[in-house]
Write a structure and sequence with these properties.
It contains 15 helices and 19 strands. A 7-stranded mixed sheet has the order 6-14-13-12-9-7-8, with helices on both faces. A 4-stranded mixed sheet has the order 3-4-5-17.
């Protein structure tokens, strides 16, 4: 039997985290026998106050966000709180993500129970929550199959790839199959290079050009322009939001979507509905396109699906799925057991017809309130939207009103060209809370005169 080698214990004198990259004593680490270990002193991640958090963010995080000067540290239902305990009524829902609000008990239970069982194994293996979620999505939609992603932009990237692969698959002898795309004015499809190419706002694209070529932007709602371009035979897919969110809460007409469907069928192009923001109950329908009776070849989802955890999904017909082979696309994290369990808990609630009916009712109530309280203001041009996806179009920048509302305890968003106030609260919001939001908006209207 070999001898047992005994190694002496030693302690390290560790500098604060900000100095960990600096060598100690010309690269040598001091070690001493039989000494107490000095506890590391990492950078504090939890701060006592909002000011410190904001100052530290400026030092350590890439400056790609123009954040509102608010630190949000906790939430419950439709309320959010900062470290000092100040309360905010949340009518932004993490940009239409927190459909069940904050801390929904069934969602919390699903996440904690699954975290104790299995969190991640990759898509090299089968997992039960992923299959169960896919069954629910397929069973409640036009689709036959689902591809999971981690976000809305990734769902649209998948739809881009699937569109091009589909055209090659059904035209194997065509040396130049259709590879181009149509998107529309005021569209937003994401910020990765393919989805970015489909996003209409030039200032999103210009710093990163050249983006993916082959995208033509047409006027949202222009039927003849779309038909003419689709007929040229070079369009792999048409991407359209049935209700535009980021673009300013604009709804398509039934005639427009029907014309796109018919033209795509005639030309062999695919029709893709981006319901990342308007889908999953936001409009009072499970899917926004249901209101039109027009169905796509693919639909992309994300924001509310997992109640705040990162997920996306590309739903496809069997015809499209048949073109996709092993290895054509993939993701390490997508469709993990943890996220899919959270999504099942969200889907089970939102898909309930009584829940969807309540969203429609509350949306009508809120628009009526807003018309009563805001409609007479000369800056208010239009109040529009479906369900709890409402836009207040102004003739001036919406930022002063958004800022004033935040200072009064109400969180709302902008949209469009910055002249639309966007209301996308948790779908569980009460009529009493909606009334309170309308009152704050009314009280803050003078900010538009003071700042413009």
């Amino acid at each position: 039997m070999g001898s047992l080698k005994l190694f002496p214990s030693f302690s390290l004198s560790v500098s604060p985290a900000t100095n960990l990259r600096r060598p100690l004593n010309n690269g040598r680490v001091n070690a001493s026998l039989n000494m107490d270990v000095e506890a590391p002193n990492p950078l504090k991640l939890k701060s006592n106050g909002s000011t410190e958090v904001i100052e530290e963010e400026a030092k350590f995080i890439v400056g790609s966000y123009a954040r509102a000067p608010v630190v949000l540290s906790s939430g419950k239902g439709c309320k959010l709180y900062d470290p000092e305990g100040r309360e905010f009524l949340d009518c932004a829902a993490g940009i239409a993500v927190n459909a069940l609000g904050h801390g929904d008990p069934d969602w919390v239970r699903a996440v904690t129970e699954q975290a104790n069982i299995l969190t991640h194994v990759s898509n090299a293996y089968y997992t039960i929550p992923q299959v169960e979620l896919a069954k629910r999505l397929v069973g409640n939609s036009f689709a036959d199959r689902v591809f999971f992603t981690n976000s809305g932009t990734e769902a649209n990237e998948a739809a881009i790839k699937f569109s091009r692969k589909f055209q090659r698959f059904i035209h194997p002898d065509n040396k130049q199959p259709a590879t181009e795309f149509i998107s529309f004015t005021n569209s937003f499809h994401g910020r990765t290079m393919g989805a970015l190419a489909l996003t209409s706002k030039e200032h999103y694209r210009s710093p990163f050009e050249p983006v993916m070529p082959g995208v033509t932007f047409l006027e949202y709602g222009n039927i003849q322009a779309a038909i003419d371009l689709i007929r040229n035979g070079m369009i792999a897919a048409v991407f359209v939001e049935p209700v535009q969110g980021e673009g300013g809460i604009y709804s398509a007409t039934k005639e427009f979507l029907q014309a796109l469907r018919s033209a795509c069928d005639d030309a062999g192009s695919l029709l893709v509905f981006d319901e990342v923001q308007c889908g999953l109950g936001r409009t009072g329908y499970l899917w926004a396109h249901e209101a039109y009776g027009v169905f796509p070849d693919m639909m992309t989802l994300a924001k509310p699906l997992a109640g705040g955890l990162p997920i996306g999904a590309t739903l496809v017909t069997e015809r499209v799925a048949s073109a996709i082979a092993h290895g054509d696309h993939g993701s390490t994290f997508a469709g993990s057991p943890l996220v899919c369990s959270a999504a099942i808990s969200v889907f089970n609630k939102i898909a309930n017809p009584s829940f969807l009916s309540s969203v429609s009712k509350k949306g009508d109530y809120m628009k009526e309130l807003l018309n009563q309280k805001l409609g007479g203001n000369p800056h208010v041009k239009e109040i529009r939207g479906w369900g709890l996806m409402i836009g207040i179009e102004l003739d001036v920048s919406a930022s002063p009103l958004v800022d004033a509302c935040r200072n009064s305890g109400l969180i709302v968003l902008t949209a469009g060209k910055g002249n639309v106030v966007r209301l996308v609260p948790p779908l569980i919001i009460s009529e009493e809370e909606l009334k309170h939001a309308a009152e704050i908006l009314h009280e803050c209207l003078p900010a538009l005169d003071n700042n413009n």
